[in-house]
Design goal:
- With 183 residues, this protein is an alpha/beta fold.
- The protein has one domain (42-181): ABC-type transport auxiliary lipoprotein component (Rossmann fold, 3-Layer(aba) Sandwich), CATH 3.40.50.
- The chain has three helices and eight strands.
- The longest helix has 26 residues, at 156-181.
- The protein starts with a helix and ends with a helix.
- The relative contact order is 0.15.
């Protein structure tokens, strides 16, 4: 009989400790939605509007604006519980433009004593205005820039085909982090 009580205690005590520990983790007066991505979004934020990125760069990559817009929407849908608003009346609004799309020579890559082929750098710079209609302290209007270095013996079209998605993914991650992870 005593052995049964001891076995029940072994099971019940850790459960009680776990409940106390989990209950103690909540901060009084602080309400936020948390996700596995580290995003912290106020519970009164329900919708996000992502306006189409305008391409204002002097060198235009035709698919870039659409890729940025759609990947940002996809990121928000997959990493948060927010719904995408079909217009500009979301609780949070992303309004962006591509301000620069450049490729330029950067010299030669060096490994140890060996100088390899010259490299070029493809740089994409975007400007994003983020408006949080529930908390204007969260608003920002910033530029984000990412680049990729590539061998000068490759043409720009092949680099765009193989590397542009990576640049877009990094830019979208930067925007997402600034808006929702508060870095």
């Amino acid at each position: 009989m005593n052995q049964i009580k001891i076995q029940k205690s072994i099971i019940i005590i850790p459960l009680i400790l776990l409940a106390i520990t989990m209950g103690g983790c909540r901060l009084v007066g602080v309400q936020a939605k948390y996700s596995t991505t580290g995003a912290s979004i106020s519970p009164d934020i329900k919708t996000a509007a992502v306006l189409h990125f305008q391409n204002r760069a002097s060198l235009v990559q035709p698919l870039l604006a659409q890729k940025l817009t759609e990947k940002l929407k996809d990121k928000i849908l997959s990493q948060t519980s927010l719904k995408i608003s079909g217009n500009s009346s979301g609780d949070v609004v992303f309004d962006g433009s591509i301000t620069s799309y450049t490729t330029e020579p950067k010299g030669a890559a060096q490994t140890g004593q060996i100088v390899s082929t010259p490299i070029n750098r493809l740089t994409v710079t975007i400007k994003v205005k983020y408006t949080n209609t529930k908390d204007s302290k969260q608003d920002f209007d910033e530029q984000f820039s990412r680049y990729i270095d590539y061998s000068s013996d490759k043409n720009l079209e092949s680099v765009e085909a193989s590397e542009l998605d990576g640049i877009v993914d990094n830019l979208v991650q930067d925007i997402f982090n600034k808006a929702f992870v508060n870095w």
